[in-house]
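Narrative of activities, Objective 1.

The group set out to show that a structural description can be obtained from nothing but a protein's sequence at a throughput compatible with the screening campaign. Below is one input-output pair from the validation batch, recorded exactly as produced.
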Amino acid sequence: MRVKTLLKTYKGSCHCGAVKFEADLDLAQNTYRCNCSICRRTRFWVAVAQPDAFRLITGNTDLTEYLFNTRKNQHFFCKRCGVRAFGVGNETPIGQMYGINIGCLEGVTEAELSTIPITYVDGLNDRWQESPDFIAHL
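Output recorded for this entry:
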């Protein structure tokens, strides 16, 4: 049985507000924390949006792109404040997707944040379908 998702439009931004976006998300669905080198260092907490459910409102010229490893997944950072508000996964099990940094969403309360389901993935060891041995630090 397929679970029906209830999408809600969230507004988000980097810390300084130069980069603003909207994303249609269901925060009752799994989100992701990963132990790969970039997610661990930036503490990136990802909600998944389909490409047609993401809209960059402002800040295209304020973004800088970082590519590493396979150079297929795009990591975007604000040039002004350094915050990683979103990224584009071009090589994922579900095809192209936008990874939205939950910490950049506006209007999500601490109580709501505490109920969002998290799936931990072992990107450090390229075991993307498995949980890492240690997750408390993620």
